[in-house]
Design goal:
Shape of chain A: globular
Number of helices of chain B: 8
Order of helices and strands of chain A: HHHHHHHHH
Number of domains of chain A: 2
Largest sheet of chain B: none
Strand content of chain A: under 5%
Radius of gyration of chain B: 34 Å
Structural class of chain B: mainly alpha
Radius of gyration of chain A: 19 Å
CATH architecture of the largest domain in chain A: Orthogonal Bundle
Distance between the termini of chain B: 91 Å
Number of helices of chain A: 9
Strand content of chain B: under 5%
Oligomer: heterodimer
Chain lengths: ~190, ~210
């Protein structure tokens, strides 16, 4: 299953009434959508409210989603429209065009949208980024390469196995161990 | 070295978008019942964002919980799940199971079937009920029994009453109504139900006064 296929499978489960599947989609995209909305709104409370509203609209519109585009493209457009409506309601000038939505539509799920700005002042980005980088630096070379191939280069397990000349099972194990080591470092930041 | 549980392996594969077919289901089930796994799933996504240089927000981590809380007060929206196997053959005495997902997904179809049946009954029977001897497609039906002359007369009286409401205070009209009721009881079944609506209208209008 590709990432897009995973999303589509989650969508189909959600369409069949499984809210847990929709919850996973929200977890997966909450940061991206909040970052997107944060480009238009400065108030952090507004960002959270509009992000929540975008996901609720998506849930209500889910029966009509037929998978002709990637789920992220679809939720991206809903988020743009939601923030536009919010700005109009606030007597503010909404974004003038749909260039970003069109760009998103052209992107495959494997391609990563990079958020250019943080939605809130309280962002943990710096601290998380430093901690993750420290943990990455401390990893053995094979684990570090495996997770960088996966997360930064977006390579599949199969491609990584070819690049590292090892079985896919070994790739899975290396990525898992690398992520575990980083997770141990950032968990106190997020749960503290 | 960390030893991964099967759930953790499925979870890692889900984060990477490469679950095995069976692992996908097991990961979803595991995340749904284990809050620690759910948190691990979210942290795994955050690690990926951090490695790619994408920003993350502490406040945005609450959105999932906020959306879940908001959805808790909404009805479950669903459509038939085409990925599921077909339903088992109905037992001899079938009952709709409205409490299950399958029953809920069948609900619109059942409602449509009931509505279609009612419309069909209305089309077939309605004209005879409303129009009496002169109304609807039955008026030219040669096989239909003709109502007795006395009943035809009563129907005509009833039609007139529909146009102009009467009151039981007048003895003459009270007698007509009594005759109508008696005739209806005696002949309604034989009359093919013609004139039911005029009869109901007369009784209704008089009863309201």
């Amino acid at each position: 299953m590709s990432e897009r296929e995973v999303d589509q499978a989650l969508v189909e489960r959600a369409q069949a009434g499984d809210r847990r599947a929709f919850d996973l989609l929200v977890l997966k995209y909450q940061q991206k959508i909040a970052a997107l909305i944060g480009r238009y709104l400065r108030d952090s409370a507004d960002v959270l409210d509009v992000t929540q509203e975008a996901f609720l609209k998506a849930y209500r519109a889910l029966p009509g989603f037929r998978g002709e585009s990637a789920f992220y493209t679809w939720i991206y457009r809903i988020a743009i429209n939601t923030v536009k409506n919010h700005m109009v309601a606030q007597n503010r000038r909404p974004p003038g065009d749909d260039i970003e939505a069109e760009l998103a539509e052209q992107m495959e799920m494997g391609a990563r949208l990079r958020d250019s700005a943080t939605p809130e002042r309280e962002a943990l980005s710096d601290e998380i980024a430093h901690t993750v980088q420290d943990a990455l630096d401390a990893l053995p070379e094979d684990l570090r390469a495996a997770i960088m191939f996966r997360e930064i280069d977006g390579m599949s397990y199969d491609e990584i196995a070819t690049a590292m000349e090892c079985p896919i099972g070994t790739v899975r194990s290396r990525i898992f161990r690398a992520r575990e080591a980083i997770d141990k470092r950032i968990r106190p930041l997020l749960e503290g | 070295m960390t030893t991964a549980t099967p759930e953790q392996r499925h979870l890692a594969a889900l984060i990477d978008g490469e679950p095995d077919p069976g692992g996908f289901e097991r990961a979803i089930e595991a995340i749904a019942r284990d809050a620690a796994l759910r948190a691990r799933f979210e942290r795994g996504l955050l690690i990926g964002r951090a490695l790619r240089g994408e920003t993350s927000s502490l406040a945005a981590r609450t959105i999932g919980a906020r959306v879940s809380a908001a959805l808790a007060s909404e009805p479950v929206r669903m459509r038939p799940d085409r990925s599921r196997p077909p339903l088992r053959p109905a037992p001899a005495r079938w009952r709709p199971d409205w409490s299950s997902n399958q029953g809920a997904s069948n609900r619109p179809a059942a409602a449509l079937a009931i509505a279609a049946s009612l419309v069909a009954v209305a089309i077939l029977v309605g004209p005879g009920l409303i129009g009496g001897p002169s109304g609807g497609p039955n008026r030219d039906a040669p096989s239909r029994a003709q109502p007795a002359p006395a009943l035809t007369e009563i129907n005509a009286i009833a039609q007139a009453w529909m146009v102009e409401p009467r009151t039981l205070d007048e003895p003459a009209e009270s007698r007509v109504l009594s005759a109508l009721l008696v005739d209806h009881r005696e002949r309604a079944s034989a009359s093919g139900l013609t004139g039911f609506i005029p009869y109901a209208a007369v009784v209704g209008q008089s009863g309201l006064r």
